[in-house]
Amino acid sequence: MNRLSGEVTGSVTNLAANEGASAETSAETSAGTRPAVGEPAIRARGLSRRFGDLLAVDGLDIDVAPRSIYGFLGPNGCGKTTTVRLLTGLLTPSAGEVTVLGHRLPAEAEVLKRRIGYMTQKFSLYEDLTVRENLRFVASIYGLPPRESRSRIAELLATYALERLQHQRAGSMSGGQRQRLSLAAAILHRPALLFLDEPTSAVDPENRRDFWERLFDLIDAGATILVSTHYMDEAERCHRLAILEAGRKCADGSPAELMAAMGARVLEVEGPGLRQLKSELIALPEILSAAQLGSRLRVLVSDEVAEPAAWLRALPQASGLTHIDPVRPSLEDVFVTCTGTGAGSDRGGPDTGSGSGRTADPAAEPIETLNHP
Ligand SMILES: Nc1ncnc2c1ncn2[C@@H]1O[C@H](COP(=O)(O)OP(=O)(O)O)[C@@H](O)[C@H]1O
Ligand SMILES: [Mg+2]
User: Fold this and answer.
1) Distance CA 299, CA 103 (A)
2) Model-level pTM?
3) Which portions of the chain have biased composition (kind: Gly residues) (predicted)?
4) What's the CA-to-centroid distance between 365 and ligand 2, angstroms?
5) Consecutive 10-residue runs of the chain (373 residues): their mean pLDDT?
6) Which end of the chain, N or C, is less packed with Cβ atoms under 10 Å?
């Protein structure tokens, strides 16, 4: 049997194995330690994690409401996975306080592990096992009795459109099919809280949409979900999200709140010489970003400018423009104003610590974007 990912298999093992507790024991434990009504499912204050010289997670304050989807949005290397590992109890914080489902971490990490599901960033099931065999394996880790295991697996195969694939080996499945299997495995023990780390990075848009519908079904059934992503369209589906950059939270709120509090207005302009215009505009302090979309240039103008369209119209550089239209902000605009980076911005981001050991520079690897008309 070939272990595809030590991390993930490890996560299943870490989350549930070798505890010697039966599913019944776990259910009793869970019932006795639920957070009080109105308490957040996750509460973190000053959560930090250092790896040598690198502060990978830097003083995060997070509140996740029960029965909601909370997102971490940020580029590679910003600390999403590290934060998820801290919140699941798999990693010990260097500083800060965390309570998850009423359990203080790290002291109560072992109890918590039976109450959460964790879908890791890399596919973590066994490629050489079939769909059904993988689910049976996970059920055995959680100590489900045979009868309960059979009925739960049958239910999951039906819910996640895996019945037809149940005898197929996981290694031969498509990205979307694997992801449905991973989700089924992560919720097999009916966790109250589910962590999904970049769940749809290998999935096409149609399957991604389908996946999110399934997440809302889980919320409807009472679960709470924390999802990390670098896709704007995923972030927009969250009830609330935190924008992370270099281990820090630079904004949080609902997508609508974030857009309303952005501190900039968005204009789309059209005319000849847009490449030249763009480079001239981004040199102005009032312009936070300019990015071309087809034949239009999307320009973020600081709130300090009272009448952005008139102000832009009066600039000598803009004399050739045929259109200047105010448009609705998008989450990408929020990201750009918040971090100073983003797709299409030539300005680059704040120094995210060259020499800090980060694997990716957000400015060099812009996050995937979704633009609104
Ligand atoms: N175990 C580790 N040891 C040293 N550095 C780490 C470790 N895990 C993560 N990092 C570093 O911490 C930073 C954040 O990583 P990560 O949390 O994986 O980011 P993301 O999931 O947002 O891509 C990166 O610079 C990464 O190289
Ligand atoms: Mg990650």
Assistant:
1) 46
2) 0.82
3) 341-356
4) 14
5) 35 39 36 58 97 96 97 94 96 97 94 93 90 96 94 97 96 92 96 95 85 95 95 93 95 93 93 94 94 95 94 93 94 86 38 32 36 31
6) C
